[in-house]
Write a structure and sequence with these properties.
Layout: H1 19-32, H2 50-58, H3 66-74, H4 77-83, H5 85-92, E1 101-104, E2 113-117, E3 123-127, E4 134-137, H6 138-155, H7 160-183, H8 186-191, H9 196-205, H10 209-224, H11 227-234, E5 235-238, E6 241-244, E7 251-253, H12 260-264, H13 266-279, H14 283-289, E8 293-300, E9 311-317, E10 324-331, H15 338-341, H16 349-360, E11 369-374, E12 380-387, H17 402-421, H18 426-433, H19 438-466
Helix pairs in contact: 1-18, 3-4, 4-6, 6-7, 6-17, 6-19, 7-17, 7-18, 7-19, 9-10
Length: about 475
């Protein structure tokens, strides 16, 4: 063999197990974590009191907003579930785990999926909330999704058979999608998307007129729900200037919240936010943001589980007052998963959310960024930044039929699988899940049992409100 034909050394410094090895690894995990074990749910004897978990979270939040959070959670068992990600994280940590780690959404319930526009202005269906994202056992996301399907079905008055069909279908869609992703080329997985129209088509195929009408409505809403519509609803002209309307406690202009000392730091804090946020963007996005001028900001109450964390909306104008840009700044405390999977590897919680979203989401907001600073109250806080109302809409689950819930859950299952496939060993996971229905049947059993626990936890919250231990502001 001549010098020119001799094999060169492999310069790759990363180990790449073969497909066969990855398949064997996934199958071998069934010995330590059988698929049937995912059916198991029973509150442990030393389970932390759920109200204690909620109150510990409240201690880190804005006191005047806490009653709104409790009021929203008290509205129904499903509303309670939406706000109880921290409670369920502690519960999931006591269940059998597969050992297959993926980037988790951390709060993958039905209403954290929806329709949104890509930067190319195409409508797709996907995950849209990453406040709790961290790497962890894949099944935690799947079980939270499945439990949300079961709980929503109960709230809609569906029969146990209909609820189980919807839950099984959601998890089956996850398993089958993961099997498909395991066979795909890496780049094809990365580019996979679920067009919003696919949900509408699926509902039409089921001859489900009511649910199909809801999907059509939300697609129309997404097309209209942009920054200009938000501008019309949230901003008022005050003489020659623009400012956010005052509608406390849901929307409160910044000047109504700052005391004398905080007012003195107003300019400093805003300038630092702008500097850090711009620097967190790519160079071309920095150029875009720098073409806008800061005008005003207001505190905005959002969601259920997020109520009490600091959330702001910020108004910028570009060419003139008819060229607005609206951003949402959302506080990023530690993920509720942190006590069970460990802290983030990133320097800030805002960066944790941004990087998790970029990894899991099919097409992220091109103005997504983050910052961390000494806030007006003198405490160091992390935030992430995204556009407000950038073509986003959520399906109203209350408008779905049993067939509609099943189809919607299937879309959520596919979407979740896609997010996991981009971040973990999809080949090992596909092999672990297998080709029969063992996994989905087990998770559906877990979901029904966990829904019973959620019902009891919701009742305990209502009791605490009734006897005055917890202050809840209903209907806000």
């Amino acid at each position: 063999m001549t010098e020119s034909t001799r094999a060169l050394p492999d310069p790759e410094y990363l180990e790449f197990p073969s497909v066969g090895e990855r398949v064997r690894n996934g199958r071998d995990l069934r010995n330590t974590a059988p698929l049937e074990s995912h059916a198991v749910w029973k509150p442990s004897a030393d389970r932390i009191e759920p109200l204690a978990t909620l109150e510990a979270q409240s201690a880190q939040r804005m006191p005047d907003l806490i009653p709104i959070r409790y009021g929203r959670m008290a509205a129904s068992p499903f509303s309670y579930f939406r706000g109880g990600a921290g409670v369920m994280a502690g519960d999931l940590a006591t269940t059998p785990t597969s050992g297959l780690v993926m980037q988790l959404c951390g709060d993958a319930h039905l209403l954290n999926f929806g329709i949104f526009e890509t930067p190319e202005r195409a409508l797709i269906f996907g995950l849209n909330d990453f406040d709790e994202t961290l790497p962890g056992p894949f099944e935690w996301d799947v079980k939270r999704l499945a439990a949300s399907v079961e709980i929503a079905g109960r709230e809609l008055g569906f029969s146990p058979i209909a609820r189980r069909k919807a839950t099984v279908a959601s998890v089956r869609a996850y398993r089958e999608a993961m099997g498909e992703f395991a066979e795909m080329r890496n780049l094809d997985v990365w580019y996979a998307r679920l067009p919003a129209r696919d949900l509408k088509i699926r509902l039409e195929e089921l001859a489900d007129r009511r649910s199909s009408a809801e999907a059509k409505k939300r697609i129309r809403q997404a097309l209209q729900r942009d920054h200009l519509r938000a501008f019309d609803r949230l901003v008022v002209r005050d003489g020659e200037s623009l400012r956010f309307i005052s509608n406390p406690p849901l929307l409160t202009p910044v000047e109504d919240l700052l005391d004398g000392e905080q007012r003195g730091r107003y300019e400093e804090v805003v300038q630092e936010f702008l500097r850090q946020y711009r620097s967190s963007l790519s160079a071309d996005r920095q150029q875009l943001v720098e073409s806008y001028r800061y005008v005003h900001m207001a505190r905005k109450v959002v969601g259920v589980g997020s109520v009490g964390t600091r959330a702001w909306v910020v108004l910028f104008v570009g060419r003139d007052s008819g060229d607005p840009m609206l951003l949402q700044l959302k506080e990023a405390p530690e993920s509720v998963l942190t006590p069970y999977v460990g802290p983030t590897r990133f320097a800030s919680q805002g960066r944790r959310v941004v990087e998790g979203q970029r990894l899991m989401q099919a097409a992220g907001d091109h103005l997504l960024g983050c910052y961390d600073l000494l806030a007006w109250d003198g405490h160091h806080r992390d935030f992430y930044v995204r556009q407000l109302w950038d073509g986003k809409a959520s399906i109203d689950v209350a408008k779905l039929t049993p067939k509609g819930l099943r189809a919607y859950g299937e879309n959520c299952g596919w979407t979740l699988a896609r997010g996991h496939a981009r971040s973990g060993d999809r080949i090992a996971l596909g092999a672990y899940l297998g080709e029969d229905d063992t996994f989905e049947q087990a998770v559906a059993t877990f979901a029904a049992a966990y829904a019973d626990t959620n019902d009891g936890d919701h009742a305990a919250l209502l009791d605490a409100v009734a006897d005055g231990r917890i202050d809840a502001a209903p209907g806000i």
